[in-house]
Design goal:
With 258 residues, this protein is of the alpha/beta class. It has eight helices and seven strands. It has a seven-stranded parallel β-sheet with strand order 3-2-1-4-5-6-7, with helices on both faces. Helix 1 packs across helix 8, helix 4 runs parallel beside helix 5 and helix 6 packs across helix 7. The protein starts with 8 loop residues before the first strand and ends in a 9-residue tail after the last strand.
Length: 258
């Protein structure tokens, strides 16, 4: 299916690897020119070269999107995107008794305020052009909180609350804002969480991986390619009647009806 976005421009944050890379690759395959950000230059340049194979323009921007400098660099390279994919690494796991105010502020700044500031910077241009797609990569922890990820549970849920209101005000201008909630996907984040819990439980990461895959109804972890394809659809011309939604991608792990 032609998604109707060929020739559009997307700003994809934290896209050198993992879920962000999956989204950038899916958009590039649809003919979307992409500006990709990441902190690591080598990995970013490697991903940039891979994406150019799709025949689109790719602009890599080195920087931490959770900082003012990183956001400024990204927006300088892509001041008027048609598509914005918000993404940033989640805060570390741990016990809330060990988190002081500065730790909380850092988490909220990275996973709530950063995407809001990026949306603020580009949404009026999208409205003026009568086309815009914003996808926020958050976490399945918003739907089913994970005890050791309290920082992520709190910060990302706050973002969802904000988006629930804003998305209803932009959709009449063909500007949609949605959230993608990943469950267990084959990423560095998942591997680090397995290592964290393995040490805490006195097990190996391989043992925990086996337990988690067997417990998932899908019998496996997700791939960044299928995550990217879901993102690309939410960015499509056909998705103009979908806004303010949170799509959970977890292989059926969440047991609820709603």
């Amino acid at each position: 299916m032609d998604l109707g976005i060929r020739g559009r421009t997307a700003l994809v944050c934290a896209a050198s690897k993992g879920l962000g890379k999956g989204c950038a690759a899916a958009l590039a395959r649809e003919g979307v020119n992409v500006v990709i950000t990441a902190r690591g230059r080598d990995e970013l340049e490697k991903t940039s070269s891979e994406l150019k194979a799709h025949g689109v323009k790719v602009v890599p921007v080195v920087g931490d999107i959770t900082t003012e400098e990183g956001r400024a660099a990204a927006l300088k390279a892509c001041p008027s995107p048609d598509i914005l994919v918000n993404n940033a690494g989640g805060p570390p796991p741990g016990d809330f008794r060990d988190w002081d105010r500065d730790t909380w502020v850092k988490a909220v700044d990275a996973n709530m305020i950063t995407p809001i500031l990026l949306i603020r910077a580009v949404v009026d241009g999208m409205i003026a052009r009568k086309f815009g797609r914003v996808v926020n990569i958050t976490s399945g922890a918003v739907k089913a909180p994970i005890p050791e990820l309290g920082l992520s549970n709190g910060a990302r849920t706050g973002l969802h609350g904000f988006i629930a209101g804003l998305s209803r005000t932009t959709v009449r201008h063909n500007v949609t804002i949605n959230n993608l909630l990943p469950g267990p996907f084959e990423t560095d984040r998942l591997r680090s969480n397995l290592e964290f819990n393995a040490k805490k439980l006195g097990k190996t990461a391989a043992e925990l991986r086996k337990v988690r895959t067997e417990a998932n109804p899908a019998g496996r972890f997700g791939t960044i390619e299928e995550f990217g394809d879901a993102c690309a659809f939410l960015c499509s011309a056909q998705a103009g009647f979908i806004t303010g939604q949170s799509l959970l991608m977890d292989g059926g792990h969440y047991p609820g009806t709603f």
